[in-house]
């Protein structure tokens, strides 16, 4: 059996899915979650209603998919932060966090949730539990692995993960929600990550 048609069909399906997610994010931000219909999203994405409904039967399912795509850590080919060298591991985690927070659409996703939260509090659930927390848990797990390796002394890995990620996001990401043109240069971002690493090493290194 020739696998080409199947591979081609899968590629087209993935491209249509990505177009739908981009169109939905754009329309949710421009018109609001409530005033954006699946039909409008299909039209903006250049997809048929049947194609959209096949992949996303409800608007909630579509929003969940946007969250999952935004917080996806990567394609699986990245180097992992192996315990044993605390400074190098934290630097890798920090740079990955910057790359995640500065992805196109990440700030827009937060803006949608914040704007619609009073009327649609359920939007916060996928953003928090299927987006933010799995990533946070991965960082906490890395710190726990460093503790097992004897490179770090800490009683509360959750607090330590909060401190480290907070030092980075407070400069790299949160101003972006209010200041549309907030885009510190690479050198400034690297400096923030380096300083966060030094703070963690000074506080917790064994």
Structural class: mainly alpha
The largest β sheet comes out as:
none
Low-confidence stretches are none
- Alpha carbon gyration radius: 20 Å
Strand content: under 5%
Provide the succession of SSEs: HHHHHHHHHH
Give the overall silhouette: elongated
Determine the mean pLDDT: 89
Number of strands: 0
Amino-to-carboxy terminus distance: 59 Å
Helix content: over 70%
> How many helical stretches?
10
Structure, described:
With 206 residues, this protein is mainly alpha-helical. Helices cover 72% and strands 0% of the residues. It contains 10 helices and no strands. α2 crosses α3 (49-55), α4 packs parallel to α7 (124-149) and α8 runs antiparallel to α10 (186-204). The radius of gyration is 20 Å and the shape is elongated. The N and C termini lie far apart (59 Å). 26% of the residues are buried.
Task: Give the SSE layout.
Layout: H1 4-31, H2 38-45, H3 49-55, H4 59-71, H5 86-101, H6 106-116, H7 124-149, H8 157-172, H9 174-178, H10 186-204
Helix pairs in contact: 1-2, 1-4, 1-6, 2-3, 4-7, 5-8, 5-10, 7-8, 8-10
């Amino acid at each position: 059996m020739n696998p080409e048609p199947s591979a081609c069909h899968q590629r087209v399906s993935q491209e249509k899915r990505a177009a739908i997610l981009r169109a939905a994010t754009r329309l949710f931000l421009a018109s609001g979650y409530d005033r954006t219909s699946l039909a409008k999203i299909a039209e903006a994405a250049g997809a048929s209603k049947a194609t959209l409904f096949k992949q996303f039967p409800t608007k909630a399912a579509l929003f969940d998919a946007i969250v999952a795509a935004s917080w996806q850590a990567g394609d699986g080919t990245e180097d992992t932060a192996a315990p044993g060298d605390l400074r190098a591991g934290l630097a890798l985690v920090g740079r990955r966090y910057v790359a995640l927070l500065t992805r196109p659409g990440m700030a827009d996703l937060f803006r949608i949730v914040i704007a619609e939260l009073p009327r649609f509090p359920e939007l916060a659930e996928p953003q928090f539990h299927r987006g933010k927390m799995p990533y946070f848990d991965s960082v906490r797990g890395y710190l726990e692995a460093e503790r097992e390796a004897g490179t770090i002394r800490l009683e509360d890995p959750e607090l330590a993960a909060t401190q480290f990620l907070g030092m980075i996001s407070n400069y790299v990401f949160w101003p972006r929600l209010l200041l549309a043109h907030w885009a510190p240069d690479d050198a400034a971002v690297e400096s923030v990550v380096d300083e966060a690493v030094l703070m963690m090493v000074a506080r917790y290194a064994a």
